[in-house]
Design brief:
The protein is of the alpha+beta class. The chain has helices at about 40-50, 70-75, 90-95, 110-120, 140-150, 170-185, 195-200, 220-225, 230-235; strands at about 5-15, 15-25, 30-35, 55-60, 65, 75-80, 155-160, 190, 205-210, 215-220, 240-245, 260, 265-280, 285-290, 295-300, 310-315, 320-325. It has 2 domains: about 5-235, Rossmann fold; about 240-245 and about 260-325, OB fold (Dihydrolipoamide Acetyltransferase, E2P) (Beta Barrel). Strands 6-7-8-3-9-10 form a 6-stranded mixed sheet, with helices on both faces. Strand 14 (about 285-290) and strand 15 form a beta hairpin. Bound molecules: adenosine-5'-triphosphate.
Length: about 325
Amino acid sequence: MAEVILNSVIKSFGTKRALDDVSMTVPDGSFVVLLGPTGAGKTTTLRLIAGLEAADQGEIRIGGKLVDGMTPAERNVAMVFQQYSLYPHLTVRENLAFPLKSPLLRTPAAEIVSKVNAVAEMLRISHKLDNKATALSGGEMQRVSIGRALVRNPQIYLMDEPLSSLDAKLRSDLRIELKNIQANSGATLLYVTHDQIEAMTMATHIGVLHEGRLVQFGSPRDVYERPVSLHAAQRLGQPRINVLPASLFPAAPRSAVSMGLRPEHIRQGAGEESFVNRVERLGDQTRLHLLFRGHPIVTVTDPHTALSEGDIVRIEPVDPLYFDADGMRCA
Ligand SMILES: Nc1ncnc2c1ncn2[C@@H]1O[C@H](COP(=O)(O)OP(=O)(O)OP(=O)(O)O)[C@@H](O)[C@H]1O
C-alpha cells in the first residue's frame, strides 16, 4: 500500500479551473474522504491520481514515485465509479476474475477461484456468480464493480460515490465492510461522497474541497468541531448546523458576523424564549423545529419529549462557532 502526495496541483478544463493549487498528503493506510458541493473538484482529484486526466501543473506521487506520464495500469490503482462499469457479456464470476487475469499479475487459477469466491461472499452476490452482468439489479451491478476493485491488490483504492445507488440497508452494511477491509488490509483509500454518515463513520481523514481548493484536511472530529469556515462547517452534521446572525444571542466576538450552532449546542430549559414550530419524531431521536426571533433553528431533544407544536421552550447556545464577514471562523 502507499502514500499519495499532491503537490500544488492545478487542473483546468477550458477556462474552468477544476483544481486550484491543491496540496494534500494521503497517508499510507488511511481512509480519506473528500467532501464538497457539486463541482468542487472531488472527481477530478480522483481522476488525476488514477491517471485518467493529466495535471496542468504540480506533482502527484504514489508511494514516493512521481507518476506523471504513467498509465493508469502502471500506477496500480483500482477505481470504483458511481456508475457501474462491467463487461455486460461476461458472467459475474468472469467480471470479478477479469482484473486477476491480467498478464501482468499472472495469478494462479486456484487463487483466482478463492479470491472471487471470498469477495462474492462478502458482497453477498455468491448466488449470482453465473448470471450475466446484464441480468443483475443496479445494486448488484454496483456490488460487482466494488468486487472487481477488491479482488486486486492495488497500491490505492479510489472510489467515487460507490454506495450511492444502493438501498439504505446495503449501504450501511457495505459501509462497515469497506471500513473493515481498509482497517484489516492496511489499504489506502480515497473516497468521494456526499453522504456525511459515510464520511463520519469511515474516514480517518476528511478533505473539504470548495471551488477547486482544499480548504481543510483533518480528522472527522476536527472538521466537525473545529471547521475552518462556515462552508466546512456545513459539510458535516445531520441535522445541519444552524447559521444565525451573530448578534442574535449575547457575547458574540466583535469580528463575528454569523454564528453556527450545531443542534447539540442548544441547551433547552434556560435562556431565551423560542416557539416550537414542529416536533419531528424519528424514533431514536426527536427533532425540534424552532422559530427564534424570525429565524428557524433545528435542535434535537429527548425522544419522548412532551413538547408539541405551539409550545414555548427556552434555549441558550453552548459553545457556538463564530464566523467573520468572509465566512472564516473567528472563534
Ligand atoms: N471533462 C471535463 N470537461 C469540462 N469540465 C469539466 C470536466 N470534468 C470536470 N469539469 C468541471 O470541473 C469542475 C470540477 O468537477 P468535478 O467533477 O471534479 O466536481 P465534483 O466535486 O466531483 O462534483 P460532483 O459532486 O457533482 O461529482 C466542475 O466545474 C466541472 O464542470
